[in-house]
Specification:
- There is one protein chain.
- The chain has a six-stranded parallel beta sheet with strand order 3-2-1-4-5-6, with helices on both faces.
- The protein is about 45% helix and about 15% strand.
- By secondary structure, it is an alpha/beta fold.
- It folds into two domains: about 10-125, 3-Layer(aba) Sandwich (Rossmann fold), CATH 3.40.50.720; about 135-175, no CATH class.
- It contains seven helices and six strands, in the order E-H-E-H-E-H-E-H-E-H-E-H-H.
- It is globular and about 50 Å long.
Length: about 180
């Protein structure tokens, strides 16, 4: 019988909606992952995660990158900090999962890719629907050209009916806000 694979050690930078409710939620109870280090600007969030997972807490992302026992680090910080923090993660020698949006410019996004190549580390830009079955099906239909050249796909999860015009859309939105 083969020995069980060791879990991947993960650090998480940012414990808000994405860091906590998406990334930590996804790893919770999954034997393939071990959350080993976290940081957030709200100490109570770090304490809650540390109590649940027995991980270390760090005063900021730079401290986590210096001190953490991790192989991969999730960047789930404020959107405007994704690029510089992801570059820091890669330069510190960790693989990186970077939440979206990737960056505020093509040049900034390219700088993350360049940092990954230079560090010989992996970067994954977390587009959580990329591998979902409905998204894969849509991509298969587009690639098949059965419906011609597609230039835009809109997803309206939870929309109750088709909206035929902008005025109808505005009326619908106003009604929901009341």
């Amino acid at each position: 019988m083969a020995a069980a694979a060791k879990p991947i050690k993960v650090g998480v930078i940012g414990l808000g909606r994405s860091g906590y409710s998406i990334h930590i939620h996804r790893m919770r109870g999954d034997k393939r992952f071990q959350i080993t280090a976290v940081t957030d600007w709200i100490p109570e969030r770090m304490d809650e995660v540390a109590a649940e997972f027995g991980c270390t807490t760090h005063k900021n992302h730079r401290a986590l990158l210096r001190e953490a026992d991790a192989e991969v680090v999730v960047v789930a910080t404020y959107s405007d900090t994704h690029a510089p923090v992801a570059r820091d993660v890669l330069k510190a020698g960790f693989h990186c999962i970077c939440e979206k949006p990737i960056a505020d410019s093509v040049a900034a996004a390219q700088s993350i890719v360049d940092a990954a190549e230079k560090a010989k580390k992996k970067i994954l830009f977390h587009h959580n629907y990329r591998f979902a079955s409905d998204a894969r099906h849509i991509l298969d239909v587009i690639n098949s050209k059965r419906i011609g050249d597609v230039f835009e796909v809109l997803e309206n999860e939870g929309v109750e009916k088709f909206v035929a015009s902008w005025s109808e859309l505005l009326e619908s939105m106003e009604a929901r806000l009341k």
